[in-house]
Amino acid sequence: MIRLWFKSGTPWIWLNAAAVSLSLIMVVGVLALVVGRGVGHFWPHQVHQFSYQEPDKQPQVIIGEKVETSITPAAMAKSTGFVMADNEDTLVQYLVKTGNRDLTGADFRWIQERNIKDHTQPTNLIVVERREWGNFYGQLLQVKEAGNVIASGEQAWPVLQSKITETLAIFKEIAHIEKKEVGAINYALERLRLKQRRLELKNSLDDAAKQEIATEKTALETEYKQYQATLTGLYQKLRTDSLVAKAENGAELVIPLAKVVRVFQPNNMNVFEKVFHYGNKAIEFLTDEPREANTEGGIFPAIFGTVMMVLMMSLIVTPFGVIAAVYLREYAKQGFITRLIRIAVNNLAGVPSVVYGVFGLGFFVYILGGNIDQLFFPESAPAPVFGTPGLLWASITLALLTLPVVIVSTEEGLARIPSSIREGSLALGATKLETLWLTVLPMASPAMMTGLILAVARAAGEVAPLMLVGVVKLAPTLPLDGNFPFLHLDRKFMHLGFHIYDVGFQSPNVEAARPLVYATALLLVLVIIGLNLAAIVIRNNLREKYRALEG
Length: 551
Description:
Elements (H helix, E strand, L loop, with lengths): L1 H6 L2 H30 L8 E5 L7 E14 H6 L10 E8 L3 H4 L3 E5 L3 E5 L4 E6 L4 E11 L2 E5 L3 H46 L5 H32 L2 E6 L5 E5 L3 E5 L6 H17 L2 E2 L4 E2 L2 H32 L4 H13 L4 H24 L14 H25 L3 H9 L4 H30 L4 H4 L26 H10 L4 H41 L1
Antiparallel strand pairs: 1-2, 1-5, 2-3, 3-4, 6-7, 6-11, 7-8, 7-9, 9-10, 12-13
């Protein structure tokens, strides 16, 4: 009976169903973990004030956010060096984010529940989110302007919020001038320098050319001095305002508002205020640049770099993959050489990605890019233009990495098209090229899109090869801006996958960076899903369009 049951194939159906179910559960579990840890990162958590006293030590006050709870059995706690009383079954510890790294040297601290004498959540506790040194936790005392106290006590809070709004507006104006206006001037000055050097190499730098370059340079330098005067005035405004806050140890700290991003009182916020704060933090995360060694601020450059690289990779890999598949299926003589090429293509899909990175660095960057610099950019020497890792080489390297997937998918799509369609087209007088271009390729387009979907899914998550051919920890400028030629293929860029690696494994403050790792990982998943959904929608439309012809 059991033998017949096995012969019927039913056990294997159930085994496959169980494997698929287990895989789905694991995927959902990973996504749930990432969503739970990543989404909660921006919520304004309650700030606790502990009256804490360890045995044989002076009592102290600890202020911070409760991040994690650890419950350890007494036997295990004793084995790790803790002294446990006979009536204690477990050791309960809290990981508290105390901030104030400039005062204490650390952002986090473990405390034991048995040593907590009192635990409150005062409404007047403030969280100061700073541009450096992380968060500050304490109590607001005064607001100063030009060294003079302008508000204290209960009046300090509304005055502080007004001053912070003014300071952020000045920061926004400074950022616009430095990145847009001054950045454009510096870019134009560099192009003038390269133009002069190019003419010198060609022995064409006559008096007229010198006069023209000098005139343009003088105009740019005059404009630059005007912006510098404006920036000087704005920076002087930033230096006048500050706040005075009291830390947990009683020390009073003067914090310039120029170093403050926001100040809030989480214990005094209602649900709507917390939701508003959460929205502002989420928008900042998506649109701002990183700060504090990538552990604070936003990740917009990484989002932009990831999407830009994937789009360029798609534009490169699709035509080459389709042309290779069309040749192998439609034109090449089916024999030993063709089978050998297909075996090589399939084997390339299994090569470790870091090998592609090494190849891209050696061939594309050093050989191809170095020769391009010698031929077309001699005036930039010894500084490389394309002879250094950048967006173009990263895109081509990933296109080479994903090329086998596109070739195999396109070949399978071409193979599924009935030969009667080709024969009918040829019988009606169309040439083989017309048949291929007007009939076969459109019908095979859903398979091409399937290959592109798989290529995008793999390329968007790759990190190892990108570390060699263009990705950096922090890129000062985006590869796309308003300066000619607008798309700068030679520039380095940021990537979400590398950002996760850098924050999670290279950060000097791992505990503070851990929530950001989950948030960035969630965003990377959403970016990949968005790119794939766009390709899937296009594929489904093409499939419906040519379904009648296939039938």
